[in-house]
Amino acid sequence: MADVQDSIPGEKIHFFQKRLLSWYKENDRGYFWRQKNLSQYQYVIAEVLLQRTKADTIAKFYPLFITEFPGWSSLAHANLHDIESFLTPVGLYKQRASRLQNLAKEMVKREGKLPSDRKDLESIPFMGQYIANAVELVIFNQPSPLVDVNMARVLERFFGPRKMADIRYDPYLQELAYRIVSHSKAKYINWAVLDFAALICHARKPKCEICTINNKCDFYRMFSKTDKLS
Cα dist. 170→32, 52, 121, 161, 202 in Å? Predict the structure, then answer.
């Protein structure tokens, strides 16, 4: 399979970046964890909670969690049952509580310092590819993509589908995502894609007719042809 550099023209990537950034200026969902000057703890906890949970759900819950557990030490030394009880409204509470506390205990050992070395970063409990990318992006200001099923959906519809089932290991999707966020406004491009997925490019019934990038979108072109035929 040809790599992204060969298969996707730079003009299409630049178009995507420019249009999504422009769209984001008017449609930013303005979540608390996107604010400047939050602590590293607050950023990481937000990304952990966002795993497999809608952002709007976490938006209502997150400030309460941060107030109850304001730092790594308070979370590490909390009663596990108390953490579970607090996480009940967002689901998967037993699994999340255990992983969050293990992460907190490790961070206490590290005196709250996140390593910039990728291998060391991923060795921390619950610090998989997505969270490690988020740390690089938000804390170390590196252009890393927040590739989840939502970002994957937008990129694949606009640029073309991946080959592998697991988005973490698909070379086409991973390379494409890195090219998309290789930009001076990498954080905002990431957030723009995620907000666009939530507000416009839905998994079901996407709002293609009002989409700001539909004139160059592969999915919309196919959708239009199918719609005409039907």
Answer: 31, 20, 21, 10, 22
Tokens 């592998």 belong to residue: 164
CA dist., res. 228 & res. 97, Å (int): 50
pTM (predicted TM-score): 0.91
CA distance 169 to 79: 37
pLDDT digits (tens, 9 = 90+) for 12-50: 999 999 999 999 999 999 999 999 889 999 999 999 999
Tokens of 92: 């998967």
CB neighbour class for 167 (10 Å; exposed up to 12, middle 13-18, buried from 19): buried
**How many C-beta atoms surround the C-beta of residue 150 within 10 A?**
20
Give 223's contacts (C-beta < 8 A, 6+ positions apart): 208
